[in-house]
Amino acid sequence: MTYENETPVTIYVTYSGSADARFDRAWYVERHLPLVMTSWSQYGLESVTAFFPAGQQTRTLAICECRFRDQGALDAAFNSPEAPAVMADVPRFTDIAPRRARAVLL
């Protein structure tokens, strides 16, 4: 499948919950993000970066920026044979359901 617009695609995966929600940052950074990169770089994932908002006011515990080469790379990664293993790893570091959002240029 080809796409008319072969521009990079950025997806943000967020984890929002109460301050006492279970979120193992060490597992996320040391194991999950490398799993994501190893699993999906072959399809065009170019980078993953984790952010942890500071302060007590936010309900967002973590944000992951995933940068894909283009829409085709994003589709290939999420439909890949490796995708179930990536998703199955989520309960190992949190009980929070991840939410995905695509960044759009303004």
Structure description:
- The protein has one domain.
- Helices cover 33% and strands 26% of the residues.
- The protein has 3 helices and 4 strands, in the order βαββααβ.
- The protein has helices spanning 25-40, 71-78, 83-93; strands spanning 9-16, 45-51, 60-68, 99-102.
- It has a 4-stranded antiparallel beta sheet with strand order 2-3-1-4.
- A hairpin with an 8-residue loop joins β2 (45-51) and β3 (60-68).
- The chain is globular, with a radius of gyration of 14 Å.
- The model has no long low-confidence stretch (mean pLDDT 92).
How does the SSE layout of this entry go?
Elements: E1 9-16, H1 25-40, E2 45-51, E3 60-68, H2 71-78, H3 83-93, E4 99-102
Antiparallel strand pairs: 1-3, 1-4, 2-3
- What is the CA-CA span between the terminal residues? 27 Å
Whole-number total of structural domains: 1
Rounded average pLDDT:
92
Round the Cα radius of gyration to an integer and report it: 14 Å
Principal-axis shape: globular
> How many DSSP helices?
3
The unreliable regions are: none
**Strands side by side in the biggest sheet:** 2-3-1-4
Largest sheet: 4 strands, antiparallel
- State the share of residues found in helices, binned by percent: 25-40%
Order of helices and strands: EHEEHHE
Q: How many runs of DSSP E, i.e. beta strands?
A: 4
Report the portion of residues in β strands. 25-35%
Which class best fits the helix and strand makeup?
alpha+beta
